[in-house]
């Protein structure tokens, strides 16, 4: 010690103290390391990404998904080649309604359309734990466009041009579901209005297009309140919807009331009945854009309905009384599937004549449908099906103060009735659409002339659940014959090839061609609009071909 410099002698006590501190720190560190390793060894082995418990306090790797908030979406994008097009440029972005109707839609052997279009329907569901699953908020929207159509604008169905920035969010649903007891539900707000006995929020879309009334009367969204009971053997639903609220202080609204009953007879068979009632005091006010709404509206002509030739200031009370049956709707219990319905629409219409409401017309129409399918293969996509529909017609309109044709929801929305489950593409509507919905028969009333038609389809999974092919045909005639025309609407052939890329993700190719019948030799406009678009000759036969990518994500 005596040989050390005096400065080092001064540091010796501090170095001893420092060694003690270091030893204490090492002891504490080793003790905590041993405790952490003991805890880790008592649990399941961690993955390579988490074997050092990195970020364990930020995001526990054993945590479960947040079930309070859910996101679902349906995405579709397709490239289309067709000879159908709108003559009026105002319908170039969105085209809805009957082919050859007042929407200026037509066919051509020279003006061939090629375009891409895209849509996404996002769905948000919030189910807070605070209410233990007894309160659910749902919101769904729609965003779609044609590639390259428009930017920096305001309005739906556009926004695909360079720069984008279009204000184009469209609201489909915002509704609250309350569950006061098991199997009971109350829905409040803008919700799905489907003519099906099944819960539209808990049923696959394909099932609803093949059961009940198959969305041929009501297949849209409406604001109101509905209550339902979904038991094991019985389903009951009652609903009230305000279709149009014009002046809040006046009796000038359009309302819909529904009562639906469904009974499961046994494991395979089910039957049900329904009552729908529309009270129309709207005087044609409201509706889509300038087209109005109701029995005497321009919108009715666009949708392919019969247009009542009377004053728009009218009062109408319309009732639908119907029944439906189904067998093996999920196609799982045995190879046979069957569904059908009968539906009567009755009513009375009074229009304002010299200050008083006088009878304009009674309504007494009828429609029936039956669909049968046989599954011959291993999967539910190996089947053949036959579909038949009948709708009564009226050759002279309301000149005799009685309309004997069919009335659907297409008088009140564009479109509201979507009969998309037949397998046809041109004669009847199909579901692979974004901004263009122009079938030859867009309403089962066929402009009031009536309808006798059907389709036959055959599908097969060449690779089970992976590669599917389909071939089909459809045809229709009219019970009522128009002036200077015949009853044959035409016939169609179609086919598709679909490849499944993953769960609910597919890429598909579709094509269809239709031969127009002598019904379209007529320019008769006595039922609301010219049958063939005032063409001097029968229009060119329509066709379509498209490649589509679809993904239902959840």
Task: Give an overview of the whole structure.
By secondary structure, the chain is mainly beta. The chain has a single domain, classed as Porin, CATH 2.40.160.100. It is 8% helix and 44% strand. The protein has three helices and 23 strands. It has helices at 6-42, 205-208, 298-302, and strands at 69-82, 84-86, 95-96, 105-107, 113-126, 135-146, 170-178, 184-194, 219-230, 234-244, 254-264, 269-280, 314-327, 336-353, 356-375, 383-391, 402-403, 436-437, 451-463, 467-477, 488-502, 505-516, 543-553. The strands form three sheets. The chain has an 18-stranded antiparallel barrel. A two-stranded antiparallel ribbon has the order 2-4. Strands 3-18 form a two-stranded parallel sheet. A hairpin with a 2-residue loop joins strand 14 and strand 15 (356-375). The chain is globular. The N and C termini lie far apart (78 Å). Mean pLDDT is 88; it is low at 1-18 and 28-63.
Tell me briefly what this model is.
By secondary structure, the chain is mostly beta strands.
Overall morphology: globular
Helix content: under 10%
* Rg, alpha carbons: 31 Å
Listing every helix as H and every strand as E from the N terminus to the C terminus, the arrangement reads HEEEEEEEEHEEEEHEEEEEEEEEEE
CATH topology title: Porin
Assign the CATH class.
Mainly Beta
Number of strands: 23
Structural class: mainly beta
Major sheet description: 18 strands, antiparallel, barrel
Unreliable parts: 1-18, 28-63
